[in-house]
Each structure stands twice: as structure tokens, then as C-alpha cells.
Design goal:
Blueprint (H helix, E strand, L loop, with lengths): L15 E11 L4 E9 L3 E6 L8 E6 L3 E11 L2 E6 L44
Antiparallel strand pairs: 1-2, 1-4, 2-3, 3-6, 4-5, 5-6
């Protein structure tokens, strides 16, 4: 396989889709929040309101893993991609498990708001 600098495609690590919020810090000391959309052992894709540029060194905090450093490899509006300095072990990632929320009982519409079964317009009669 050819490297990206030789004009070939780079092999991407298998990504896991998830949606979680984390702290994001840049090398200049700026801090903010980021929503992680997908994660692999080599990097992540996410969304943030911080101004990021490709090549910028940033760090994020992942539960169960801790602080992870890497560099921004692409940006598009608020979306960004980050490549980790060192691969992480996804098995150590701790996703909080909250209580299961039960759906409310089925909603029923009051009878006065039910659709009518007789579709004849009032005041009209049928010719016979």
C-alpha cells in the first residue's frame, strides 16, 4: 500500500460510532467542549465551537483512558478530525450506563378529537 504522501490511500482504522461530550484543550491553553461522533484507536471525528486548524496540537479527556493528545488533521466548519499521538485501547473506554428510561404508556386521543367515521358533508344530500 502506498502512503498518502506518494499519492496512495491511507488505511483507516475501524471506527466506532458514538455520541459523547468531552473536554477539549489546545496547545495555547484554550479550552472548550467537543462532541465525539466516531472514535477509533488512532483518532476521532467530532464537532466543537472552538477555532481549530489542521496541524494544531489538542488534547481531549476520555473516561477510562484519561487525557489523550493528538493533532487536528482536518476541519470543516465546526467539524474536525483528530489523529492521536499514540493509539488508545478502546476496551478501556468507559461509557456511562444510566437507568433505562421507560416509554410512557401509549397516548390516546380524547373521543371528541377522534376523526369522524361519517365523511358526508353537512347540508348535502344524496340524489336518489
Amino acid at each position: 500500500m502506498r502512503s498518502a504522501s506518494q499519492g496512495g490511500k491511507r488505511k483507516r482504522a475501524k471506527r466506532t460510532a458514538l455520541l459523547t461530550k468531552t473536554a477539549l484543550r489546545d496547545e495555547a491553553g484554550g479550552a472548550g467542549d467537543a462532541r465525539i461522533r466516531n472514535l477509533s484507536e488512532k483518532g476521532l471525528g467530532g464537532v466543537t465551537n472552538m477555532k481549530l486548524a489542521p496541524g494544531l496540537t489538542v488534547s481531549i479527556t476520555l473516561k477510562g483512558i484519561g487525557s489523550v493528545k493528538g493533532r487536528v488533521v482536518w476541519t470543516s466548519g465546526k467539524s474536525f478530525g483528530m489523529e492521536f499521538a499514540e493509539p488508545i485501547d478502546l476496551d478501556q473506554l468507559h461509557m456511562p450506563s444510566g437507568d433505562i428510561v421507560q416509554a410512557p404508556p401509549p397516548f390516546s386521543v380524547a373521543s371528541r378529537y377522534q376523526p369522524v367515521q361519517d365523511y358526508k358533508r353537512p347540508g348535502f344530500t344524496h340524489r336518489r
